[in-house]
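Comment on this:
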Amino acid sequence: MSGAAPEKPIRILLAGGQKLLVKALEARLEGSTRFDVVGVAFDAEEAARQAESLSPDVVLLDAAPGELDVLDAARRLSHEEQPPKVLILTDEDTELDAVEAHRAGAVAFLRRPPSAGELIETLELVTALVVDTAQARSGS
């Protein structure tokens, strides 16, 4: 469609207790025009602080054992004035209750390790939720 305004990239905050995993996720999204990694956090407090100041559309929380309690982080993020969509990245060994995570504010789960395609596809799905929510707020 010629003359259409370019689509704004989806703003993503990456958070997890293991720096190597978070940096690997950042590398998978690097160079994408669809997504813009606006911040990286390694604990729930830092994730909440960055979410407040950076206003990301999506927060990707890695549930690998480490310094980040993803349920605490999801709860904190869901209390933001304009809460971001929360996507939790987990593996089969992680004992994370899906119902409790949803109550805490998570909208989706993705099994680790995702391929670049799986990561992008899931972020696109979560992005659709962001767009739908923004349109509902604006009355469009």
In short: The domain at 10-115 is CATH 3.40.50.2300 (Rossmann fold). The chain has five helices and five strands.
